[in-house]
Every structure is written in structure tokens, then in C-alpha cells.
């Protein structure tokens, strides 16, 4: 059996001391919330200290990325619903004479004001391939390379703050396959897209 040192009544904190400690902890929590959590997580800086410490900028970036993710998800959902309601009709590819290269080539140029976006799609059969390259003059863009058609949808690649991209696009299914670009900068940018390959049409949607 062990002897336990039981504190006397005089050694125990009083009710006033407990309340005081609780109020101090609450005040400290409020200070941390206002000066660190709100600026760093939500970009809200009521005291101005968060911007001095660089936390407000971080919070603003987080909120912008969250808004863009929500907008991208809403766009993808709307496109999928539209495709389900009205399945895409893909024109039959034209016959190509022997000895000539299949497909077509195009150059598409668009200028985007700050905050504006555009979607450019190639109409392709499943397994068809198209080479592409695009560049941005005057800044950078966020992009989503994806496809939809016949009730199906897929995302090939996404990027933020990109000045250019090139590669080969292979259609996962019959439908529309291409890019959504958005200008998140403060000045106009011009996107130039060059494509060549096995597709029947190029079209855009603002």
C-alpha cells in the first residue's frame, strides 16, 4: 500500500483561479484564431498582422484553389449531365486516299480576359490520336485536358499556372476530347493551340 500525498484545501486552486485560467486560455485561443488561423486558412485578416506574417496570402491562395476546384467539379458534372441527356453524334471519318496521311491539322487562337475561360474540343473516335501543342502569350493559365461523350467522361491531365503544353492525345472513347483553359491572372492572355491527327472537327465553347 502506497502513501498518497493528498493536497490540502489551501493547495487546491480556488474557483476564481480556475475561472481566470479558463478566461486566459479562451483569450489566447481567440488571439490565435484571429491572427493565425483565419488569415492562414481563409484569407481573412481582421488585424492586418496575418498579411505582415505572410499568412493572409497563403490563405487567399487556398481559398482560390478551393473555388477553382468547385468550379471544375461543377463544369464536369454539367457536361456529364448534358451528354447523358443528348448523346454526341460523331460524324463518320472520311476515307483517305492511299498514300496520304490521315487526319487534319488546325490552329486555334483565343484571347482570355482575367477570370475568363474557354473550352476547345476535338471530335474523335475511340483510339484515335492527335498531336497537339499550345502556348500562352502574356501570362499563364489553368487547364484541364478531358473528354466526354455518350454518357462517359474522363480527365487526362490538369495543371495550374502553365505557360505551355505539348504531347499526343489518344481518345478513350467516342466523343469530344480537349482542353478547358482559364485565365486567373490580372491581364489578358492569348492561347494558341496547334493540332494535327485523326479527328473530324474542332469546336469551342465559352
Question: What are its keywords?
Answer:
single chain; 206 residues; alpha+beta; 5-stranded antiparallel β-sheet; 4-stranded antiparallel β-sheet; elongated
Profile the largest sheet. Answer: 5 strands, antiparallel
Individual helix count: 3
Q: What percent of the residues sit in helical stretches (DSSP H or I)?
A: 25-40%
Q: Which structural class best describes the helix and strand composition?
A: alpha+beta
Radius of gyration: 28 Å
Record field, number of beta strands? 9
Low-confidence stretches: 85-101
SSE run: HHHEEEEEEEEE
Distance between the termini: 82 Å
Give, in spatial order, the strands making up the sheet with the most strands. Answer: 5-4-7-2-9
Work out the strand percent: 35-45%
Overall mean pLDDT stands at 80
Overall shape: elongated
Q: What would you note in describing this structure?
A:
The protein is an alpha+beta fold. The strands form two sheets. A five-stranded antiparallel beta sheet has the order 5-4-7-2-9, covered by helices on one side. Strands 1-8-3-6 form a four-stranded antiparallel beta sheet, with no helix packed on it. A hairpin with a 2-residue loop joins strand 4 and strand 5.
Amino acid at each position: 500500500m502506497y502513501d498518497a500525498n493528498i493536497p490540502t484545501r489551501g493547495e487546491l486552486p480556488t474557483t476564481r483561479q480556475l475561472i481566470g485560467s479558463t478566461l486566459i486560455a479562451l483569450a489566447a485561443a481567440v488571439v490565435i484564431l484571429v491572427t493565425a488561423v483565419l488569415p492562414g486558412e481563409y484569407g481573412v485578416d481582421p488585424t492586418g498582422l496575418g498579411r505582415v506574417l505572410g499568412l493572409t496570402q497563403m490563405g487567399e491562395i487556398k481559398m482560390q484553389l478551393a473555388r477553382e476546384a468547385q468550379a471544375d467539379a461543377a463544369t464536369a458534372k454539367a457536361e456529364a449531365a448534358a451528354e447523358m441527356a443528348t448523346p454526341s453524334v460523331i460524324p463518320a471519318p472520311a476515307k483517305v486516299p492511299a498514300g496520304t496521311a490521315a487526319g487534319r491539322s488546325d490552329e486555334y487562337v483565343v484571347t482570355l480576359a482575367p477570370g475568363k475561360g474557354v473550352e476547345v474540343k476535338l471530335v474523335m473516335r475511340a483510339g484515335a490520336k492527335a498531336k497537339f501543342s499550345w502556348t500562352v502569350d502574356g501570362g499563364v493559365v489553368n487547364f484541364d485536358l478531358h473528354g466526354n461523350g455518350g454518357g462517359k467522361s474522363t480527365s487526362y491531365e490538369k495543371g495550374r499556372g502553365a505557360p505551355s503544353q505539348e504531347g499526343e492525345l489518344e481518345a478513350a472513347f467516342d466523343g469530344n476530347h480537349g482542353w478547358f483553359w482559364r485565365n486567373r491572372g490580372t491581364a489578358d492572355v492569348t492561347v494558341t493551340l496547334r493540332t494535327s491527327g485523326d479527328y473530324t472537327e474542332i469546336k469551342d465553347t465559352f
